[in-house]
Amino acid sequence: MKLIFRNKIIYFFAFTSIFLAVVITSSCRKEIPVVNNAQDYPGSSYPDLFEAFWTGMNTNYVFWGVDTTNWDRVYTTYKPLFAKLTTFDSASESTAENYFAAMTAGLIDSHYNLTFELTGNSFSPATYRRELMNPNYFTDSTFPSAVLDSLIPYKYIDASSLVMGTDTVTMEGSATPFTAVSGTINNSILYLYFSSFALSQAGTNTSPVFNYFYNMVQNLPAYIRGIVIDLRGNGGGEVADLDFVVGQMIKTPVTFGYTRAKNGTGRLDYTPWAPAIVKPWYGGSANIKVPIVALADHLSASMAELTTMAIKTLPNGKFIGTRTWGANGPLAPQVYFNGGQFTIGTSTFGSSGYLFTYTSSTMFKYLNGSVYEGVGVPPDIYARETTAAYKNGEDLVVDAAINYINSQ
Amino acid sequence: MAYLALGMGLLFTTHLRAQFYLGIEAGGNKNYLITSNQAQSFTVYDPKGGFSLGVPVLYQFNEWFALQSGLSYTQKNYQINRTGSFQGIYQKNTNSYMELPVLAHFSFGDEQLKGFINLGGYAAYWMSDHLKGVESNVLNTVDSSSTSNTLTDNTGVYGYSYSEPYQFSTVKDKRLELGWIAGVGISYETTSGHRFFIEGRYTASVTDQQKNYEINQVPRYNTTWGISIGCFFRLTANDNIYHYVNY
User: Fold this and answer.
1) Is A242's CB within 8 Å of B139's CB?
2) In 3-state terms, what secondary structure has residue B23?
3) What b/e readout covers B62-85, taking b as 16+ CB neighbours within 10 angstroms?
4) Which residues contact A250 (CB under 8 A, 6 or more apart)?
5) B203, pLDDT greater than 90
């Protein structure tokens, strides 16, 4: 009888223990907060807009693994400041825009841009920093307008070979002039310039330029000792142009770097690195053995930099010029990679929202393991055009390319 | 306190000659990653199956109470799936843990066929995470669709298939996991001292998989349902095992 009684107590003790354990287990876990998409915050007050923006950046910004900005410190510093902005008026708006700019001023993403939809103001940290370091960063460049208008087509390119034209294309929703130039230099170097990566939109004036250049590439005459692709001042554009531009000069795929995106809500949640590949163009390509030189400068950005790195990876490739702008991370709408660009305040301010954040969707790492975001791609051979050289009728960068090709 | 006193009293009023068992066990499980990913569009975290192998030890104090421990290799897997037009993009995380439980083992029934309940805690070390999946490769475009040259959908780029070990981050990843275990099962002990068992087990971590490295961090917890079979081998003689104290 005593044993039976004891067993009952044992069962009671055991099952009660399980019940307590389950209760304790569930209560030991931290509460799991619901982190909304940045777009889903109401945005009806400055503090709420701050939370939406901070969270959107925390989740979507792809460079946290290499960016040294202390985003937690940004939170603790600016949360109380935004809390003091209690009404929407011009003074508060000005203050808020200054806060948002100050929060992001050190970010390395050189595509990064804030657009304040209420006022039309914008802020680019990369531009801000460069102008802070060198007020003449943009104005002391004689390329592309001056050099292209006078020097290259008329003093360098053989007149009988010159093909050039300008069309209007749509870039980021805006009508943009699209210029392309090709021809031979000293009847031994094949040259191509284009102002942006919008080759699929090439029209009646620029299509002949690309047709000339790539007909020459795919049937390269023996007298051509080298190829120059001039990407100076090129701000980038469409990713798919990479295979069209470089892929027509190779016969086997070339891995020139890696990209990765976010794959979680945490700041350091990343996908594995995926290889960045330039493939032989599906419409035809040639196995080019002569030197291929990419010219790029401090205004070459995005696809111009990726193309430069693809060329410099080729066994016969070389990059001549100056360190590039440093915006290497490709972009796509937020939904594709659960990261990158986002809009806040759409519930309160309509479809354009309060603030649009333009930022990369993926991080790019060059083949050598370096992330050049924010610092630019260093040239293999340094060369920079100067005003004095321009006035002498010389393009020092093209001269460097000619000297390099002639030395091979 | 009264509850604890009752338990201790029950334990020590049944004087005994303890027995020691060493065993082997193997089983399958399904792991759920408990977190929130509302900010990720067209993305779900799905549970995945795994397996466990262990070498349990059992120290039997009396006919109804024992302490169980041992070392086991346990997988706690899950999979991230994109949905909708992104279907096909996924990442399976195969997580390997070395787990050390300390369990109170309560058994009841007759001498050979017994039911039992395990209850206790565990510490586990996250040894490795193998990633297998497919992601969109933004710099590997499908040239035949490049007439538009824009990423209008995920068919504009090739997927990248990968299978590689995860590189742990010293900033982010917390590799020591603590938690609770509750199990229920039945066992059958032969006269030769082999105790076969089958057990269903619920394992819940109470520690985040991540270090506290960011404000407003979303925690991640493993919750695992498993079933295992095994056998204990008695290492001590079977004489005068239990001496019940009448009171």
Assistant:
1) yes
2) strand
3) bbbbbebbbebebbbbbbbbbeee
4) A278, A280, A285, A287, A288, A314
5) yes
Amino acid code (one letter) for B29: N
Q: Who among A2, A10, A37 is closest to B106 (CB)? A: A10
In the prediction, which pLDDT does A14 show?
58
* Amino acid letter, B18: A
- Tell me, what amino acid is at A179? T
Q: Which of B47-56, B140-149, B167-176 has the lowest mean pLDDT?
A: B140-149
Question: Band of the pLDDT at B247, cuts 50, 70, 90?
Answer: very low
Cα A121 to its chain centre, rounded Å, is 21
Q: Which residue of B has its CA nearest to A267?
A: B214
Residue listed under structure tokens 């790019």: A364
Using the Cβ of B44 and the Cβ atoms of chain A, whether some distance falls under 8 Å is answered with no
Partners of residue B169 in chain A, C-beta under 8 Å: 268
Q: Which percentage of chain B shows pLDDT scores above 70? A: 84
DSSP A346-364: HHHH-TT-SEEEE--SSEE
- Each residue's pLDDT tens digit, A35-48: 788 888 999 999 99
Residue A206 CB partners (closer than 8 Å, separation 6+): A165, A166, A167, A178, A179, A180, A194
Q: Residue B203 phi/psi, 5° resolution? A: -125, 125
For residue B69, the cross-strand partners are B57
Contact B138 A362 (CB under 8 A): yes
Residue B91's pLDDT band, with cuts at 50, 70 and 90, is very high
Q: β-strands A317-321, A381-382: how paired?
A: parallel
> What amino acid is encoded at B105 in this protein?
H
Q: Give me the residue from A76, A200, A268 closest to B172, CB to CB.
A: A268
Global confidence as pTM: 0.89
Average pLDDT over residues B211-226: 96
CB A173, CB A179: distance < 8 Å = no
Partners of residue A339 in chain B, C-beta under 8 Å: none
**Backbone φ/ψ region at A320: left (φ over 0), alpha (ψ -120 to 50), beta:** beta
Tokens of A391: 């006035």
pLDDT of residue A30: 81
Work out the widest C-alpha separation in chain A, in whole angstroms. Answer: 115
Look at A37 and B39 and tell me if their CB atoms are within 8 Å: yes
Identify from B135, B139, B225 which residue to disrupt to test chain A contact, counting A C-beta atoms within 10 A and taking the largest count. Answer: B139
- Bridge partners (DSSP) of residue B141 are B157
How open is the CA angle B9-B12-B18, to the nearest 5 degrees?
Answer: 150
Amino acid at A340: G
